[in-house]
Structures are given as structure tokens and as C-alpha cells.
Amino acid sequence: MKVLVIGSGGREHAIVRQFKNSPSVTEVFVAPGNDGMKQDATCVAIDSLEFEMLTAFVHENAIDLTFVGPEQPLAEGIVDYFESQGLRIFGPTKAAAQIEGSKSFAKELMKKYKIPTAAYETFTDVNEAKDYIRKMGTPIVVKADGLAAGKGVVVAMTLEEAIFTVEDMIGNQKFGESSSRVVIEAFLDGEEFSYMSFVHNGQIYPMVISQDHKRAYDGDRGPNTGGMGAYSPVPHLPESVIQQAYDSIVVPTVEAMAAEGTPFSGILYAGVILTAEGPKVIEFNARFGDPETQVVLPRMTSDFGEFMTALLDEKPFELNWSNDEILGVVIAANGYPVKVEKGAILPDLSKLNGDLQVFHAGTKEVDGQFVVNGGRVILVTAKATSLKQARQQVYAALSDLEWDGLFYRCDIGWRALK
């Protein structure tokens, strides 16, 4: 079985490695990939939005399955294009990818089908949005309606911050067309977790849950990022909560998408918060989360390639997960997530060995050394019999190296280990 993975970040590196470690997979390609993935796959210099070139490559190389990592090609219809060429690809169609691509689409779907989420209103006018904020008070959540690379959500704790945010998003078009419309919703208080599922034609295979850290700095301070670290499992959340989220969120959402004529196939990511009233949806994504993928996929003990074939062929499959506990820490470039400073040289990553794994995101190889080429540079994970042990292993290894021009949080996992 030959597989092509679309994308170039840490999430795609985890997907690539999972396929590489699958006995049923003979060859893994990644487009465009990054220099740090070269040990695990053959990198192909085709951008993820070059659909015509990608399908030509798949035909020429007899690729059996294409797996899409990032949201942008999904939102622009890569699955529709591949399927029109008779090619096997895993991910949602352009219509189904709206569950991530349009916050208002997702909120309206949840409202119609009574899927628990925060109360909200949608705005395109700055003054109307500001009036609503003044009426509702803070804290309040402001979200760009469209895709914003994980940076389009602001939890405003003050009136000034909320008003500045809508002026910036709608008035200044901070995220272009993506923020010409905003969703403003009630702030939900509680424990957050990421619940991802493989979905195809009504089949649902839920994954083990994880929890990530969005703020840039220790103590959950600083700006929101795409994620500074994650861990799985989430031991302080009982199994009954996970089951409740599956029953009240995951299953009804899959059924709702089918009922709306936009059936979902792919990775359904539910960002969930456990409130006093039970689990509620914060957001949906139409693909794997990053950095959650790097701590969830390595816990899969089943053959990934074999599972994907069975899923797409609609054959029953027993998907198995290890009891290992994994914790991962993102190493980011100075200035992230505001103004990234590129070019810093990374230390010798070969020293991160044993039960540690390194997933590359924003790296580039120059004269035999990896240098910073993006905001989130690498993610380092450890696998152990407890999160406490995994955390000790990661931080002990990181502290032995010099990270000039980079930074990382020193408290990943604090909620589970406090």
C-alpha cells in the first residue's frame, strides 16, 4: 500500500510516521512535507493547494490512498477534486468542511439539531457587534467566522479587549475575508478536551481524548497560539464524561451533517468543554488537531494503513489503543505567535532519543543543521506508564540542550498533575 499525506506541519509528521510504522504500508510520500520528515517519508515539492499536480503525481506513482492533514485544501475542495478523478482520498468534501471553515455554519447546525454549545450571535457590522458586547458584558468570546490558522479566537476578559477585537477583525479585516463576519458567544467555564473521531459514511471510530495548552506562556498567560503542548489521556476526566460527549455531540453531529445533505467523512475534531451543565462544543475542526495528533496517534496499536482501508471499504475493524501515556512540548521560535524570528540554529536533535519522539513543523535543513523556519518549530514527546513520568522525561531531555532563539512552556500537563 502506497500513501500520500498532504501537508507540512507537525500534525502531518505524526500522520506520516504512523503510516510508516504500519506493516501494510510499503511507501509513504508527503507533499510538500518539510526537511525534518525526510527520514520517515519521501517529500514531494508540490504545494497542498496544487490539486492538478497532486492528482497527476498520484496517478503516476500508483498511490493507493491520499490523507489530507491541513484545513485549507479541505476548505478549497481537494477531496471533491480527487474524487472527480476517481482517486481514493480521506477527508471531508468542501461542503462538509464548512463545519470548520464557517463558525456560523457550525453554530447554526448545532442550534438546529440541539447539539450543546454556547449561546451566540453572528455579526458583519462593527457597531452592532460592539452594542451586543456591551449588552452581554465580559468575559466573552469573539471568533473570526472563517479559517484563521488557529488564531481567530479571542477570549476577551475586558470590554476594551472585546471591542478592540471586533474592530480589528471586522473593521481592519485582520484575517481578510475570514473575519468579515464574526461569531460572538458566551464564555463557558470548565475543563476543555479534544475529542477526535474517524468518520466515514456514518461509521464512527472515536479516538482517545487529549488536552492541549493554547496560551503562549506558563500559567496559561500570553496570546492564544495554535497550541504549545498536549497530553493523552486526560486522567482527571471520567469515562462517563467522554461517553456523554460521544452520545450528545459526536453522534448527533454526524447524523446532522448527513441530514443536511453534507455527509461528513474524515477526522471530526470536537473541541469540548465540560461545564456544570455537561459537555458542550467550543468548536469543530474538519481535520486532526495540532499538537493533539502527536500525542494521540502514537497511542494507536492497530495497523493504521489496514484500518484506513477497512474504514473506506466500510468493513468492521477493531481499533486498539495502548495504555501508554504521552506528553508533548512544543518548541517555538522567539516572537511566536506575533512576529516570528526565523533562522536560529537548533541543537543536535539526535540527543533526543529513547522513548522520546521529535515531530518537525517549522524547520529547514541548512548545511546539515536544522534552523527555524516557522512559529512552532518542533514538538517533543515522551511515552511512559504515567503522565508524571512522561513529563519528567521530556523536560529532563529539553533542559540538557541549548535553545537559543527559541522558547517552550515548562508547565505542560499542569491540570492533570496539579
Automatic annotation (TrEMBL):
Pathway: Purine metabolism; IMP biosynthesis via de novo pathway; N(1)-(5-phospho-D-ribosyl)glycinamide from 5-phospho-alpha-D-ribose 1-diphosphate: step 2/2
Keywords: ATP-binding, Ligase, Manganese, Metal-binding, Nucleotide-binding, Purine biosynthesis
Top-level taxon in the UniProt lineage: Bacteria
Entry's Gene Ontology molecular function annotations: ATP binding; metal ion binding; phosphoribosylamine-glycine ligase activity
Reactions catalysed according to its record: 5-phospho-beta-D-ribosylamine + glycine + ATP = N(1)-(5-phospho-beta-D-ribosyl)glycinamide + ADP + phosphate + H(+)
Domain called ATP-grasp: residue spans: 107-313
GO biological process: 'de novo' IMP biosynthetic process; purine nucleobase biosynthetic process
Entry cofactors: Mn(2+); Mg(2+)
This enzyme's EC code(s): 6.3.4.13
Keyword Oxidoreductase (UniProt): no
Pfam family, one: GARS_C
The keyword Nucleotide-binding is assigned to this record: yes
Stated family: Belongs to the GARS family.
Protein name: Phosphoribosylamine--glycine ligase
Protein's organism: Paenisporosarcina antarctica
